[in-house]
Amino acid sequence: MEFSIKSTAPGQTKSGCAVVGVFESRKLTQAAASLDRDARGYLKSIVERGDMDGKLGATLVLHNVPNVACERVMLVGLGPESGFAEKQYREAVGAAIRTLNSTGASDASLHLTEIASLKRDIKWRVATAVAVAGEAVYRFDQMKSKTESPRPALRRLALGAGTKSAVRRATAGLEEGLAISHGVSLAKDLGNLPPNVCTPTYLAEQARELAKRYRMKATVLERDEMEKLGMNALLAVAQGSAQPPKLIVLEHRGGARTQKPIVLAGKGITFDTGGISLKPAPDMDEMKFDMCGAASVLGALKAVGELRLPMNVIGIIPTTENMPGGRAAKPGDIVTTMSGQTVEILNTDAEGRLILCDALTYAERYEPAAVIDIATLTGACVIALGHVASGLYANDEALAKEILAAADAAFDRAWQMPLWDDYQEQLKSNFADFANIGGRPAGSVTAACFLARFTKKYRWAHLDIAGTAWKSGKEKGASGRPVPLLTQFLLARAGRK
């Protein structure tokens, strides 16, 4: 879909459809009132007759509205004006895009971006509208022999800026919204691909493609190189698979040489059977999503590349399958990590922390300003936070606050969890420095405590996205989270406000 910014009044914009809002009080938004004046009260009469009640997400498409340039007018319900905020805005925009896709309009102008009741500036409104539109039109049908439904007619969407003075900020929002939307779509595509296609080798190829397109540097370490570095925890997970493991490093060098980079490390288990600690069969197909941390890193780097952010960002992706087999790691095995610490593997299904711990040690060589790892790490996080918020852990409170602020701005929610040393007791082992699991109590916390043992040389945060990286049921598919959060964090670090 093509996007543009318009500052003309909705009634004067020639398009297939003009989209304006109505509150539950039957109050028209400023853009709707402007259009109504051109239409000589036509919209107000429709609302007063009760054909549009203003309930959040309700839509009504009107044809042949008098004295306006557009072919159609869509009224979108906004709910109570007093409660209209970010969540309601996103729902209203999503409802508008879905309804537009069911019309025959090939182009439209969206004026929900001009709602004065929303206490966000035009840049945020436009960026969010673009991201929501991308979500609404996203499809994954590339593996089907036939497309199940026709593509929507909507091809072009103009976003209202309200005034000419707001166009510059709106245009900046459009650029950021597109970059985030494209990053989310990439992360979704990678997550939704079947595991016989999206292998560690495939992820490495995607990293190389991004490097080529956005002038980044891609490095892929093979098994023998990882052996020389002593990445025995990562390699232990890879032992049971016929697919070769990879350690992918993707570098965006947009800042000064002396600028310390932000490192994003993403868990890349392209399929997780649980290994010898085999998972139950129901829903095991969803374990193709166990590489969504890696996908989010590639998605965020794509957004960074499109925005040409003036900063240094490095993505590190340890990637492998976790399979059972004659060579697979066994419960009771002890491995020496790249850091020199030894780990007793009590459960081979706690493999994400094993591949990440070596990646986090590898990150030390970049002397990073901060490291954020992203992983579908624990079912315990799903029990704790459900599918709304990602779990956030950090060894630096200032970094945690930055991430929470980015989560709020991107509406990609996270919730800070404890990382107290009290929980480290659960990782004790009689035979190694520590174990890879700490039992059922506080499982997400002890997983983070495990990773914390490898991050003492830099500021670090961990995002457990097990509950937010994908959806099950009728809407099964990757969510693309937390690409919006990560990109917003990097935008703030780059000074983009």
Outline the fold blueprint.
Elements: E1 2-6, E2 18-22, H1 30-38, H2 42-48, E3 59-63, E4 72-77, H3 86-101, E5 107-110, H4 122-137, E6 156-160, H5 167-192, H6 200-214, E7 217-221, H7 223-229, H8 232-238, E8 246-253, E9 262-266, E10 268-272, H9 292-307, E11 312-322, E12 334-336, E13 342-344, H10 352-362, E14 370-375, H11 379-385, E15 390-394, H12 397-410, E16 414-416, E17 434-435, H13 443-452, E18 460-464, E19 470-471, E20 477-478, H14 483-493
Parallel strand pairs: 1-6, 2-4, 2-5, 5-6, 9-11, 9-14, 10-11, 13-17, 14-18, 15-16
Antiparallel strand pairs: 3-4, 7-8, 8-11, 12-13, 15-18, 19-20
Explain what the structure shows.
- With 497 residues, the protein is of the alpha/beta class.
- The chain has 2 domains: 2-158, Leucine Aminopeptidase, subunit E, domain 1, CATH 3.40.220.10; 180-493, Zn peptidases (Aminopeptidase, 3-Layer(aba) Sandwich), CATH 3.40.630.10.
- The protein is 35% helix and 19% strand.
- The strands form 4 sheets. Strands 7, 8, 9, 10, 11, 14, 15, 16 and 18 form a 9-stranded mixed sheet that branches. A 6-stranded mixed sheet has the order 1-6-5-2-4-3, covered by helices on one side.
- Helix 3 crosses helix 4 (122-137) and helix 6 packs parallel to helix 9 (292-307).
- The radius of gyration is 24 Å and the shape is elongated.
- The two termini are 26 Å apart.
Quick recap:
It contains 14 helices and 20 strands. With 497 residues, the chain is an alpha/beta fold.
